[in-house]
Design a protein that fits this description.
eleven-stranded mixed sheet; alpha/beta; two-stranded antiparallel ribbon
Length: 298
């Protein structure tokens, strides 16, 4: 089927904004030209792609199917353009996906070093959960991701490098001072208010699985999307927070670690990329910072 790429480009902008007027602004063409392009594409495909009303635009089921294929294609095209524009001396640009916690407590020194080594390179960091970061990598929206491991969603990613190990800890403030010096079983812990990340995170999956292995149902008191907020709530005594140990970088008199009878399993931070897609020079340079860290998985 012979369909001009520009028609798919217009479709992508309308579908991602659900607005003909916004798409026209992004494409620097008139709204009538956008409308005409969509009509032409619908005629060529013999499908209705949008439901139009005076106030709203929404995708039809056929439009949603097409968007699922067009969206990654658009990202890959942009990626190819960016690689062609890479400056050999500076490395061009790098796009990294990582959670807020990993960015703040682990990546910042590496980003600082990269910026110092390649001051003209453009750095883009997209903050998402470790689960969502895998989707960003698979759809070509980022070059590299730094994520918690184990992460079942990484099963289709071909290149994973371990860059550090860490342990998770339970922390509490003086409201739970009676627990200092004790070692609690998971069953005992389950009787206290547990503060943890929400179910859309690998950390939540990890802790729920750990409790299930001991035939316990974990019912958290509070679920959030930020480890920093969990620390803040633990500091005011709302419960016992479950966080990675690298989030506690300095001794703090307000908080202490609640010990467990069984040693918590270690986890890893890994950096991953898709070997089927060539890396930009900038991404290769950034990966070199972790050359001596762990081993490559495939």
């Amino acid at each position: 089927m012979d369909i001009n790429y520009e028609l798919y480009k217009v479709f992508y902008h309308v579908a991602s904004t659900l607005s003909f007027s916004e798409a026209s602004k992004q494409l620097f063409i008139s709204q009538s030209a956008v409308s005409q392009s969509i009509k032409t594409l619908e005629r060529k495909l013999d499908q209705t792609l949008f439901i139009r009303s005076t106030k709203h635009v929404q995708l039809t089921p056929e439009g949603e199917i097409l968007l699922r294929h067009i969206e990654p294609a658009m990202h890959f095209i942009r990626r190819g353009e960016a690689q062609l524009l890479d400056a050999a001396a500076t490395g061009g640009q790098i796009r990294i996906g990582a959670s807020d916690t990993i960015c703040r407590y682990f990546l910042v020194p590496y980003l600082e070093r990269f910026h110092r080594d390649f001051p003209s390179a453009h750095i883009k960091v997209i903050n998402q959960t470790s689960i969502k970061c895998v989707e960003l990598l698979e759809t070509g929206q980022v070059d590299l991701i730094v994520t918690n491991y184990p992460n079942q969603y990484l099963s289709n990613v071909s290149s994973i490098k371990k860059i550090r190990t860490f342990k998770d800890v339970f922390i509490a403030n003086k409201s739970f001072e009676q627990l200092k010096g004790q070692k609690l079983s998971y069953e005992q812990l389950s009787k206290y208010p547990i503060l943890m990340l929400d179910k859309r995170s690998t950390t939540s999956e990890f802790l729920h699985r750990l409790f299930q292995q001991h035939h316990l149902d974990l019912v958290p008191e509070i679920e959030l999307t930020s480890n920093d907020l969990l620390i803040d709530l633990a500091r005011i005594g709302l419960g016992i927070a479950f966080i990675p140990d690298f989030c506690i970088q300095e001794p703090n008199d307000d908080l202490f670690i609640v010990e467990t009878e069984e040693e918590l399993p270690t986890r890893e931070l890994v950096i991953a990329h898709n070997e089927q897609i060539p890396l930009t020079k900038a991404s290769e340079e950034f990966l070199n910072y972790f050359e001596d860290c762990g081993t490559e998985r495939s």
